[in-house]
Write a structure and sequence with these properties.
mainly beta; Jelly Rolls; three-stranded antiparallel beta sheet
């Protein structure tokens, strides 16, 4: 996957600051994943366009992540061994994060589930906004589903 960053040079002029290939990495229960941008703090401009490379897939309050995932056929996102403290998992893959997630299906199809058996089949071009709500992803098709995720960290009421 290619990531091009437009930022500023030392004189404050807009320039293509980087043009980089980012490899998708295997992730159990999903398929492949690439973190394209990860910042824990608000940006300041002008900036040189260097990726802050903050740790983890899920951002803290005010942080952002840009992630692309390929969900392989027959896969359902589930908690990884050891888990991630930023995510609250149920046995069926249902989970929530303390973030607003803006998701775009780039290719294929995937099922988005909500508690109580609610489900919707999403296909290429569909957009989903998840406002810290419980959900699960499942690929029932015979080909990968590629989804772009943009996450903005937020507060969960009662946990501040």
């Amino acid at each position: 996957m290619r990531r091009v960053v437009l930022a500023h040079d030392a004189g404050g002029r807009s320039v293509i600051a980087s043009d980089t290939d980012i490899a998708l990495q295997p992730v159990p229960g999903i398929g492949l994943l690439a973190t394209l941008w990860a910042a824990d703090d608000a940006p300041a401009y002008p900036g040189d366009g260097r990726d802050p490379e903050a740790p983890g897939i899920f951002p803290p309050v005010g942080g952002v992540r840009m992630v692309v995932a390929d969900f392989l056929p027959g896969q359902r996102i589930e908690a990884a061994e050891g888990g991630d403290a930023a995510i609250d998992w149920a046995d069926d893959g249902m989970h929530h994060t303390d973030s607003t997630d803006f998701n775009v299906v780039l290719d294929g199809e995937i099922v988005l589930s909500a508690p109580g058996g609610q489900e919707v089949l999403l296909t290429k071009g569909d957009v989903v906004v998840i406002a810290g709500a419980d959900h699960a992803w499942r690929n029932d098709s015979d080909r990968p589903a590629r989804i772009a995720f943009f996450l903005v960290g937020g507060h969960r009421k009662g946990q501040d």
